[in-house]
Amino acid sequence: MSLKPQPVSVFGAPTDVGAGRRGASMGPEALRVAGLVEALVRRGVDAVDRGDVAGPRNPWQKPVDGYRHLDEVVAWNRAVMALASAELEAGRMPVMLGGDHCLAVGSIAAVARHCRATGKRLRVLWLDAHADFNTSAITPSGNVHGMPVACLCGLGPDALVHLGGPGPAISPSEVRQIGIRSVDAQEKRLVREHGLDIYDMRYIDEVGMKQVMEEALAGLDANTHLHVSFDVDVLDPAIAPGTGTRVPGGLDYREAQLMMEMIADAGGADSLDLVEVNPALDKRNRTARLAVDLVESLFGKSTLMRD
Questions:
Q1: Which region ranges are annotated with the description Disordered (predicted)?
Q2: Which residue pairs, CB below 8 angstroms and at least 24 apart, start in 155-158?
């Protein structure tokens, strides 16, 4: 299957309102400094930078009823959803630069609504160290960046569950989670109850990334919209230190490259989140530069002599 030639619209959502540490708000600029748009243009992609969506400042308050900054999280996600929806309607691929991973509620709500309107099936690849399936009742922190998958699947506050219309936006059967290695005890119970399809690091170690991606991409066809939600903490901290939720034992460089190349081989993504880059914790923008390298592979750059 060849890569889809759709034009790309990059936009930033510079907030860390859903996170537990400050700094992800600087992620969009770090990715721009690392040359993301220029790298896509060099690959022949019609890529434009739409600038940043706007939202409220991070008030840095304690949780209320199990959520930190819920009103602010909702406002940012509405802004993300609005811009992503406009780009999808214009026939362009939205690439959302976070910011923290709570913003995927808005981007995926837009994609899910677009799929319903166009009669397409949806597949979400969630590349992350965490399942992000917490709820207000079980969250250890109240940070909403640990809840977006649950919210999208109908477990969360009404303002997020119904963000893009009557929820839930997606079903667990539409999600494939890759690279998971940190799941809270109560969250594990919820994940099992809802049947999330998880390819954790042990499974990747046992069968290899090639088989994992073959399974995660199985069944894709021309009528499937593929959304990739890429949290840089899926990568091992040794190669990607610039993120606020580092977990040892993540993907190494070759595993990550193969993952992205196989997505490209399957036809590529139709929408993309690139989140949790925290330059305040990074070394000379190393994590953003690696993320750009991997996104190039997602758009067809091969590390091997097969072209």
A1: 1-23
A2: 155/190, 155/194, 157/67, 157/70, 157/74
- pTM, two decimals, is 0.97
Whole-angstrom Cα distance, residue 187 to residue 41? Answer: 41
- Segments making up each domain of the chain, as ranges: 8-298
Burial 148-158 (b: 16+ CB within 10 A, else e): bbbbbbebbbe
| Residue 219 φ/ψ, nearest 5 degrees | 90, -5
Residue 224's SS3 state is strand
276 is catalytic: yes
Which of the residues 130, 174, 255, 270 is marked catalytic? Answer: 130
- Give the C-alpha distances (Å, rounded to integers) separating 276 from 39, 81, 136: 20, 18, 21
pLDDT at 207: 98
Interatomic CA distance for residues 79 and 20, integer angstroms: 21
Q: Which CATH architecture has domain 8-298?
A: 3-Layer(aba) Sandwich (3.40)
Residue 52 annotated among the catalytic residues of the structure: no
Known active-site residue 296: no
Q: Is the pLDDT of residue 304 over 70?
A: no
Establish whether 100 is an annotated binding residue: no
Question: Which position among 132, 255, 261, 270 bears the catalytic label?
Answer: 132
Catalytic residue among 236, 276, 282, 296: 276
231 is catalytic: yes
Per-residue pLDDT reduced to its tens digit, 9-65: 999 999 999 999 999 999 999 999 999 999 999 999 999 999 999 999 999 999 999
69 belongs to the catalytic site: no
Active-site annotation holds for 132: yes
Active site residue 46: no
Q: Is 132 annotated as a binding residue?
A: yes
